[in-house]
Write a structure and sequence with these properties.
mainly alpha; Globin-like; globular
Length: 158
C-alpha cells in the first residue's frame, strides 16, 4: 500500500459527516450570538443552510461529493456570496469563530489537521471577501476545491 493510499482524507481524520456537521453547528451557534454577523444572517441561520454548508465542507475535505452532485456545486456557493459586502473584520472573525467551532465540536487538535483546517479557512475566506465585493468579477465556473494535508500530513507514530 502506498503512503498516499494509506493517508486518510481530512474528512476521514475529522470523523466524517457527523463531525463536520458538529463543527458547522458549533460555528453557526457562535455566529448567531455575535452582532458582527447580523447583516449576513438576519434572523439566524436555518437548518437547511447548515446542511448545505456541511455538504460543502465534507466535499472540500475529501468526503462525499453531494454539494457538486445535488446542491449546485461551486456556482451555487458563488451565487450565495455575491454582493454580500463581507468586511475584513467579518472575514477574520469567520476564521477564528470556525476554529473555535472545531474546538467546540471536538475535532482533532493535532497541529497537522488544524494547520490544514486553518489554511482552507484563510484561502476560502479571502476568496469569499473578493467575490462578495460590489462589482466583483469572480471566476464563474470552477470545481469545488478538494483540500488536503498540505505540507504536514497526519502524524501517526510507528
Amino acid at each position: 500500500m502506498t503512503e498516499r493510499a494509506s493517508t486518510p482524507t481530512l474528512y476521514e481524520w475529522a470523523g466524517g459527516l457527523p463531525a463536520i456537521r458538529a463543527m458547522i453547528d458549533a460555528f453557526y451557534d457562535r455566529v448567531e450570538r455575535s452582532e458582527l454577523f447580523d447583516n449576513l444572517f438576519p434572523g439566524g441561520v436555518t437548518d437547511e443552510h447548515r446542511e448545505f454548508v456541511t455538504a460543502w465542507w465534507a466535499e472540500v475535505f475529501g468526503g462525499p461529493t453531494r454539494y457538486t452532485d445535488e446542491l449546485g456545486g461551486y456556482e451555487n456557493m458563488l451565487a450565495h456570496h455575491r454582493d454580500l459586502e463581507i468586511s475584513r473584520e467579518q472575514r477574520a472573525a469567520f476564521v477564528s469563530t470556525m476554529s473555535l467551532g472545531a474546538d467546540d465540536a471536538g475535532l482533532p487538535e493535532d497541529p497537522e489537521f488544524r494547520s490544514a483546517l486553518l489554511a482552507y479557512l484563510e484561502w476560502g475566506t479571502r476568496l469569499a471577501l473578493e467575490n462578495a465585493a460590489p462589482g466583483a468579477a469572480p471566476v464563474e465556473h470552477a470545481p469545488v476545491p478538494r483540500w488536503g494535508w498540505g505540507e504536514a500530513p497526519p502524524y501517526t507514530p510507528g
